Amino acid sequence: MLNRYPLWKNLLILLVIAIGIIYALPNLYPEDPAVQVTGSRGAIEVGETQRRQAERALEEAGIPFEEISLSNSTLLMRFTDGDRQLRGRDALQEALGDDYVVALNQAATTPDWLRSLGANRINLGLDLRGGVHFQMEVDMEAAVEQQLEAAASEIRSTLRRERLRFRQVAIEDGQIRIRMASADDLNTVQRLLQRSLDEYQYNQDADEGLLTLSLSDDAIREIEDYAVDQNLTTLRNRVNELGVAEPLVQRSGRNRIVVELPGVQDTAAAKRVLGATANLEFRLEARRNADPMDIEEYEFRDQPGRTAQLERDIITTGNNVANASVGFDENNRPQVNIRLNGQGGRLMSQATRPNVGRAMGVLFIEHKTRTRYERENGERVEVREPYTERGIISLATIQSELGQSFRITGIGDTQEASELALLLRAGALAAPIYFVEERTIGPSLGQRNIEMGVTSIQIGLALVVLFMLAWYRMFGIFACVALTANLVLLVALLSALGATLTLPGIAGIVLTLGMAVDANVLINARIKEEIYHRGLSPQNAIHAGYEKAFSTILDANITTLLVAVILFSIGTGPVKGFAVTLSLGLLTSMFTAIMVTRMQVNWVYGKRRIERLPL
């Protein structure tokens, strides 16, 4: 018969709708405000001891919590509201100390059976959900200090290469001081260094055999600006590695950077990765008869008490790493596979070629902040003290000349290796950076505006339903059922694809509802025309109405879809949110307006002999 679907097609349509309902269901379960605790690095585990310590800290502070759970070395505490969440975060940070990352989070309440199917809530943008706000401060003094250390290392290499004898190259009071064996060499050394270090100001003291290099104010300002800009780029790369949707990373003032992360499931991991200022230095092990002024002694990072002496001169750093990935050595222990860029590979080759048989150390440098709490005028005040940890993670004999690719072994565990590889891929920070503020941020447009956005969908849907029922009666009911299915499928797609819903995205949903019912208006109008103007029977009119309206509906949706794709490709932020919901809504509306309504019409009229249609 004309208006009958085969059984397989009916079942397929119902299956699609059923899957849509399942993947849309998680959005009915609200999230709980929570605080998440993890180790500051992979080697630090969170266990029952920390759980008991956290419970005791919250009880002593008089902060009630809903639930506390421990899973995969992660401690999660749920609270009933945001105020208790913030107070709980502060109490836990003070109790657990700096070895643990205490971060704000939103804990899902979705049932396990839904999560096992991969069904999750829609990611909401900052304007709908709010998120986590970090304000980070770049250590300008450390940026200048690092520049001086790099220049001092270059000076030592240059003087050795030119066979100019020197007693010491040291950094004192923000200056590089070069003490030569003979004062007669001062002019030669100054002319030699000015070729590559022209941003420095030079001052000689012939009586002391001393040449002093100091940076000008303009040079210092340039270094500081570079440090902030480089840290901005690195933080953006790290956020991209985390896969955060619609993040905000921007400069704030002279030396601060603001990072806002909406919809992050693991804010503790985000805080740990964003704040990590880890870098690597590759140095040769010092010779036994080396000058004590040219060597430094460091402890092994995972073997307290064991030390080794390394040369001050740096072969290369993590800044020259082009790519890093996690692997396993022949003993199935984690390692990081390193690939250097051209400059790094050249430096590594030049350093290892004449030193085959010597040991090379990999020095892990991590800038941290130690937090302590004091009482001033009866109020608790948080005091942050920056400090730097340096430790050897690998000391191995150079078997042959190294180039751009090699591996680092001796890393604690797979998680630590993964985080190190991520940091190296994203790029090293040009200067240490510290968290100075962390807070949750509310919706930027206000809760009332959010409620009005949701209400607009409800009012729009209600008006469309009333119009369709009043004008098309039974066929209006078919259109309303399809419209509901369209909304469910759209929400399911947004959830399954991990798209970020913003307030403009809600506008896209409202527009989608209007365009979806427009297709049914075209179909119903075409059916009426076939009956009243062409004199076809009801069954033939239904068939002709769907067949002839299809091309018009397809043309209209394709042109709109092209516009949505262009908006997504060239737009940013809110424009992309609108384009995403509009694009997905066009796809779902095509399916529901044609297939779902046709299935209902077939069920009601396909097997009947009818004289007239209620249109």
UniProtKB/TrEMBL annotation:
Pfam families: Sec_GG (PF07549), SecD-TM1 (PF13721), SecD_1st (PF21760), SecD_SecF_C (PF02355), SecDF_P1_head (PF22599). Keywords: Cell membrane, Membrane, Protein transport, Translocation, Transmembrane, Transmembrane helix, Transport. It is a multi-pass membrane protein. Residues 299-431 form the SecDF P1 head subdomain domain. The keyword Transmembrane applies. Residues 436-600 form the Protein export membrane protein SecD/SecF C-terminal domain. The keyword Cell cycle does not apply. InterPro entries: SecD (IPR005791), SecD-TM (IPR027398), SecD/SecF_arch_bac (IPR022813), SecD/SecF_CS (IPR022646), SecD_1st (IPR048631), SecD_SecF_C (IPR048634), SecD_SecF_C_bact (IPR055344), SecDF_P1_head (IPR054384). It is found in: Cell membrane. GO terms for biological process: intracellular protein transmembrane transport; protein targeting; protein transport by the Sec complex. Residues 228-285 form the Protein translocase subunit SecDF P1 domain. GO terms for cellular component: plasma membrane. Residues 2-104 form the SecD export protein N-terminal TM domain. GO terms for molecular function: protein-transporting ATPase activity. The chain crosses the membrane at residues 452-472, 477-499, 505-527, 548-571, 577-599. Belongs to the SecD/SecF family. SecD subfamily. Part of the Sec protein translocase complex. Interacts with the SecYEG preprotein conducting channel. SecDF uses the proton motive force (PMF) to complete protein translocation after the ATP-dependent function of SecA. HAMAP family: SecD_B. Forms a complex with SecF. Part of the essential Sec protein translocation apparatus which comprises SecA, SecYEG and auxiliary proteins SecDF-YajC and YidC. This is Protein translocase subunit SecD. It comes from Marinospirillum celere.
